Amino acid sequence: MSTRILRRSPLLAVLLAAVSVPACVQYQDFDSVGHLRQQFSERVGAERSTGIEVPYEVTPELRATLEQRIRQAPSQRSKINEVLRFVFEDLDLSYSLTPTRNAVQTWQTQKGNCLSFVNLFVGVARELGLNPFYVEVTDHQKWNHREGMVVSQGHIVAGMYLEGELKTYDFLPYRTKAYKDFKPIDDLTAAAHYYNNLGGEALMAGDLQAALGHLEVATAIAPKFEKGINNMGVALARSGQSDKALEWYQKGLAIDPENPMILTNLTRLYQQTGRAKEAEELLARLEASNESNPFFFVYQGEIALSRGEHEKAINYMVRAMRQDTEIPEVHMGFVKVYVALGELDKAKHHLERALKLDATNQDALAYAKLIGQ
């Protein structure tokens, strides 16, 4: 069985006003891949742009598979159902936190995280003549913690307008989908998210060279992308380039002066470079803000713990948990405090929770050996 495979625009509408089109000219489907490559070229130059991936690009091999497996469908809704059937039934796609994969890699391995799923969904759906796009969920963000600094990633879902209503399609297991705020983003920003994810994963793996390479791409194609700017600052700080890290943090704060992730990391940088007064001012500013991320409170708790202020440390960890209960580092904050207090049963409870959330967490594995979990 085969179906006609079309490539359509990621744009929500095409406006044809005051344009005279000769009758002999046939309609040409919008080449979203070619358009994005042109945008890459404009941002970074033609030569460098050739090495940048289009995350949703479909290969001839995948296109041939779609022609064989996708059934003809009369409506947008039924076509979307065909996409979902292909992904979750034909491929039996399974969740894998890392690495973030492009559409073809996700198809080949049958594994992926949320952004991997969206890359595949967008690529396949556009092949069917649909107009899906990337959507950032602004009320659910992802953070990771590495050596006192916060690595930031957004949560991306696929979106389409059906009968005037935004419908979203997600692949995020083990979490209730209670999203409230959505922001459709263009393909260029989506590509920046893709490279930011790769950079964040490299940072967490300790591969600074790879992290810097991916984050250079993310920030070059989307110069005002705050998450990429934050992570570039983290990568530079971790590689010993404090002055350059400071420049990137300041660049990010010029775009968003109250960005809690950048402010948290800048505070850490000030403390590491002996600028105690500036660090204390930022700590007070962050603590007064309702926008602080959970890692700020974990960080404050660890500072209190280092000073022997155990009750204060617990209070900070409680505030961190109020921000997000699903982050292993929050539970590890409790583990450290309870171990210091000798309350091993409570420490083991939070350690078990941390390992359930992330079985590879190095802090958790170290404490599991320490307290015999």
Compute the gyration radius: what is it? 23 Å
For the sheet with most strands, the description reads: 4 strands, antiparallel
Q: How far is the first residue's CA from the last residue's CA? A: 55 Å
Strand order of the largest sheet: 5-4-3-6
What is the molecular shape?
globular
Strand content: 5-15%
Can you tell me the residue ranges where pLDDT is under 50 for at least 5 consecutive residues? Answer: 1-27
Describe the structure in your own words.
With 373 residues, the protein is an alpha+beta fold. The chain folds into two domains: 32-292, Tetratricopeptide repeat domain (Serine Threonine Protein Phosphatase 5, Tetratricopeptide repeat); 297-373, Tetratricopeptide repeat domain (Serine Threonine Protein Phosphatase 5, Tetratricopeptide repeat, Alpha Horseshoe), CATH 1.25.40. 57% of the residues lie in helices and 11% in strands. The protein has helices at 32-44, 46-49, 60-69, 76-90, 103-109, 114-127, 187-205, 208-221, 226-238, 242-255, 260-272, 276-288, 294-306, 310-323, 328-341, 344-357, 362-371; strands at 94-95, 111-112, 133-146, 149-162, 165-169, 182-185. It has a four-stranded antiparallel beta sheet, sandwiched between helices. Strand 4 and strand 5 form a beta hairpin. Helix 9 runs parallel beside helix 11 (260-272). The radius of gyration is 23 Å and the shape is globular. The N and C termini lie far apart (55 Å).
